Amino acid sequence: MKATMKVLQILEPGRAVWREAPRPTPRPGEVLVRVEGVTTCPHWDLHLMDGVPMFEDRPLIYPHTPGEPGHEVVGEVVALGKAVSRLAVGARVAAWRDPGGRRQGCYAQYVPLAAGDLLQIPDTLPPAAVAPLELAMCVQVSFDQLRQREAVHGKRLGIGGLGPAGLIAVQMARAYGAREVIGLDPLPKRRALAARLDADHVLPPGDPALPPDREGPAALDAALDTTGLKISIEALMARTKETVAIFGVLREPIVFGPAHWWGDFALLGYGAHNRAAAGRALDLIVSGKLDLTPLVTHRLPLSRYAEGVELLRTKEAVKVLFLPSDNA
Fold it and tell me: In sequence order, what DSSP letters do the residues of 97-139 get, joined into one string?
């Protein structure tokens, strides 16, 4: 008899089921991972449950791919497909990227994943400390861009938005030697969390303590926007001397005008996912310079997925760590 497991599937907007399914067999180049935990990617989870495409050119189809949108996963390799030599059965791994188009997502008890999409991790790291590695890789890509312009070390750096990516960015700014880190977010709880993660100042948008323009000693040297919102990006551009990098998914045109033309100002789009950036992010985690655990504000079994999504919707949760056990 074929082995079975449980997997989450979004059948239609607003309706997800935790159902039984055959346990997958890894194909050539894949490994089968026994899932220890998966953290939410709030935008993906909310969009799929609401029936709204994350990107306009990618329409949603329901019932959706089983296990999607789960991709921030940590677990143990339990079987190898053909032509896999870099990983062994028993290795603990975390996914460093989600290439899309998978036959199954990670909201499941077992998931087949391409070996090249995984990094081996120390046994000492608990799931909450490393499951969001893929997000940390993404933020690292933006920091690599900023560091190429010498826009982090010794600089006064602003972080727009203190959701999961912004809280990672606060820590990376500190790890890479920013002189001063200023976090901006309308939610008091998230500002408080950023302060605990060593931001020097945490302010709501429009606070009078913010610099009035790009000139003068109070202006930001550089900034990273994690929201993708026009109003946030343009507010940072109006207060930043050198460089603003956009990490958040951008959906509106941004005004780059005469006020930004002078002074060698640069507006950076997002770079490219890459394994080297994932390795740098993992090194920060292992060395204790990046702590992803505070991002996980709630832990729930996958059978309570809809409850977790509502916690994201109301912003009670920063991230939810879903566990593939009904007894979590």
Answer: ---S--SS-SSBSEEEEEGGGEEE--TTS-HHHHTTHHHHHHH
Q: Would you state the pLDDT for residue 145?
A: 98
In the CATH hierarchy, which fold is given to the domain comprising 4-132+292-323? Quinone Oxidoreductase; Chain A, domain 1 (3.90.180)
Domain boundaries, the chain: 4-132+292-323, 135-268
How high is the pLDDT of residue 53? Answer: 87
pLDDT higher than 80, residue 57: no
Omega cis (within 30) before 132: no
d(CA 27, CA 308): 32
Band of residue 288 on the pLDDT scale cut at 50, 70, 90: very high
Which tens digits make up the pLDDT trace of 84-125?
A: 999 999 999 999 999 988 999 999 999 999 999 999 999 999
| DSSP class of 10 | E
- In words, the CATH class of domain 135-268 is alpha beta
Residue 185 CB neighbour total at 10 angstroms: 25
CB neighbour class for 94 (10 Å; exposed up to 12, middle 13-18, buried from 19): buried
Half-sphere exposure of 198 (CA within 13 A, CB side): 15
Residue 292's nearest CA partner among 315, 319, 273 is 319
223 close to 236: Cβ distance less than 8 angstroms:
yes
Contact 265, 241 (CB under 8 A): yes
Give SS3 for 37. strand
Determine the Cα angle at 86 with ends 83 and 91, to 5°.
115
